[in-house]
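The pair is quoted verbatim as follows:
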Amino acid sequence: MDEWVHELYQTCAPELFRIARYRLLEEQLAQDLVQEVFLLLLEKKDILKEHPNIKGWLMKTLNYRILHAVEQRGREFPLTELSLVPAPSKPDSLDEILPKQLSAKEKHLLKLFYEEGLSYQELSARLGMMPATCGSRLHRARVKCKKYLDEGKEAGGQ
């Protein structure tokens, strides 16, 4: 294997896997998609060695693979917090399943990240804020969403 690709794999694969596992909630599929991204990198290494932001390319490529995997499955995920929320059989958008207690800004941020698949950099550019701020707000919105989803599960289960 090319040393450049090997070094990128050593430094970036753990983070890519963590992101894929978090978004897909399936360890094996996350591993497969990260491997696919690096196989593609190997195929195109001569072109990509000159890429100005190779880590961004890896993230973006993984994001496309995740979106494709979700579409291939017809958006069927294993039983998770989101799948326990009463929702129409085929939601058109996250608006239909996000907790009503979230603010409009939190919903908008989650929709941009999950529906449009924007990276932190793209989110920050679109929303006019620093990437770190964008990451913090996204994290807080996720935590708040999970809290309300968990409360809904508990109320529905009693």
Remarks:
- The longest helix spans residues 131-157.
- Confidence is low (pLDDT under 50) at residues 77-91.
- Residues 52 and 68 are 25 Å apart (CA to CA).
